[in-house]
Amino acid sequence: MIVLYDFAPSPFCIKVRAILEHKQVPYERRDIRGPAWLALRRRSPTGLVPALDVDGRLVTDSTDIARLLEARHPEPAILPSDAEDLARCRVLEDWADESLYWYGLYLRWQEPEGCRTARSAFPAGTRAALTWWVGRGARQRLQGQGLGRKPVETVLRDLDVLLGDVETLLGDDWLLGDTPWLCDFALASQLFYLSRTPRGGEVVAALPGLVAYLERFRALRGR
Questions:
Q1: Are residues 120 and 216 in the same domain?
Q2: Do 102 and 130 belong to one domain?
Q3: Which one, 132, 146, 167, 182, has the greatest CB density within 10 A?
Q4: Are residues 85 and 176 in contact, defined by beta-carbon separation less than 8 angstroms?
Q5: What is the pLDDT of residues 107-158, one digit of tens each?
């Protein structure tokens, strides 16, 4: 039995769900926007998701989850066997998870249009309280990281340049050639998260190479 404690909009949860689906691993989803959150908190004080329960062992970091799934279900592989490609894959995955992520967080929780649409992620009964609580925490983290101290137009300008460079690197393929590796699962998941914000969606939609990349990724998940 594999159980995924999940928060659907999270890019890290998108990443783990995509890997499970690509590897065709059966699993049960437990949405933490309900009683499952209390069950998770009893086992993990942070309550962070994604959290994967595999045979009673709880793993809570998306990269650690990916490595565990690769070891248990090696086909189709998501980590290259070539040492140089593996090194590139790890660096690109870390960049997507730890750098690109902040742009999505900014455009969801600090940019005004994103803030107005963030409420829809939470159940009606607790929507106002959870929106306030999660939003406050996100903005505090953005201030500490530094992006939160920049004006919206500067962030959008920098994101447009950054994603244009990503589009150039991709061409008509995946990040490291004709095979989707873990770095692609990380990048595509962050792009999905970005594209579901009003301003981020505009930036992604203006780059046809990224739109095509996300279509390839959707097809990969539905294989």
A1: yes
A2: yes
A3: 182
A4: yes
A5: 999 999 999 999 888 888 788 888 888 899 999 999 999 999 999 999 999 9
